[in-house]
Amino acid sequence: MKKSSKPIANHILDFLEYIDVEKNLGNKTQLTYHRLLKKFSDWLTFKKMASLLPHQLTGEIIWEYRVFLSKNINKNSNQSLKKSSQNYYLIALRNLLDYFADRDILCLPSEKIKLSKKGKDIKVKFLNLDQVEKLLLAPNTSSQTGLRDRAILETLFSTGMRVAEIASLNKDQIKIPLSGEELEISISGKGGKIRPVYFSNRCLKWLKKYLDSRQNDNEKALFIRYKGQKAGSLRLTTRSIESLVKKHSIRAGVPIYTVPHTLRHTFATDMLTKGVDIRTLQEFLGHSDISTTQIYTHVVSKQLKDVHQKFHSGSNLKE
């Protein structure tokens, strides 16, 4: 291990290049890491430690930074940062230390940075199947826009894809099977990870109706906009998809928190309740780390506990 003569803050851009080239993380992830690590470098400057070298970082300094995070006020909510938000900053710092270790730069081991303990509440929000049905039926499919929206909603629930993955789909990826079988395609997900996704017969029915309505255009994108400027690509953006999901959720009367990721959560919990094992679900969702997938097991466990308490509490038995 060697000591670096560059201050920690001066390594951040090198770290971002590292996660781009060697870790193959997307541009949005790089921007997030930059934002999270900038808070640490700004704090070092405020504490008159801008010249701190990697090997000079100590557990005491990390503790001071944790105290600072715990007292930091979120500008939007005017409240203290949530434990989960504090952890994002600490995880980013952990990854920077892992980068130092990977480059044989002497530094504090990343495991010395302890994360804040989060509450036991599970924050995963999902719909029940009755709510899903109401949402899917919300678009007016007599119009081309309604057909598109129905196809998008069906695709979100059928595949469990992320909204960015949906937006990046192309028409030529969707080959409707003649035999009524489900369709399997490969997509490049978060971090460039390739995984298979599956379209149900029901989803394919609506995709076919939508594609049949588009036989006269040469657009490459699967989902396109029909309003606004016609110059350039008509591909729907992730923001547009989020807006149409919100619009139809209000129309359907389903919970106000419903966004595209809610349907991904719903897909995951539905798969688990139907008996899919956690490792298989990890592959369906494209998670790199099994711990990300395991949150759904807690949700399903709570559902089972609630069902047991409701139907098998023994309350009807005599004392």
Concise description?
This protein is mainly alpha-helical and 319 residues long. The chain has helices at 12-21, 27-46, 59-71, 83-102, 129-136, 144-159, 163-167, 201-212, 238-252, 260-273, 278-285, 290-293, 295-311; strands at residues 73-74, 79-80, 183-188, 194-199.
Structure description:
By secondary structure, the protein is mainly α. It folds into 2 domains: 8-112, DNA polymerase, domain 1 (Orthogonal Bundle), CATH 1.10.150; 129-309, hpI Integrase, Chain A. It has 13 helices and 4 strands. It has helices spanning 12-21, 27-46, 59-71, 83-102, 129-136, 144-159, 163-167, 201-212, 238-252, 260-273, 278-285, 290-293, 295-311, and strands spanning 73-74, 79-80, 183-188, 194-199. The strands form 2 sheets. A two-stranded antiparallel ribbon has the order 1-2. It has a two-stranded antiparallel sheet with strand order 3-4. α1 packs antiparallel against α2 (27-46) and α6 packs antiparallel against α8 (201-212). The model has no long low-confidence stretch (mean pLDDT 87).
Given as residue ranges, the uncertain stretches (5+ residues, pLDDT < 50) are none
CATH class of the largest domain: Mainly Alpha
Q: Which radius of gyration do the C-alpha atoms yield?
A: 24 Å
Number of helices: 13
Biggest sheet layout: 2 strands, antiparallel
Order of helices and strands: HHHEEHHHHEEHHHHHH
Enter the CATH topology name of the largest domain: hpI Integrase, Chain A
CATH superfamily of the largest domain: Intergrase catalytic core
Structural class: mainly alpha
Shape category: elongated
Number of domains: 2
Strand order of the largest sheet: 1-2
**Percent of sequence in beta strands:** 5-15%
How far do the termini sit from each other?
Answer: 69 Å
Tell me, rounded to a whole number, the average pLDDT.
87
CATH architecture of the largest domain: Orthogonal Bundle
| Portion in helices | 40-55%
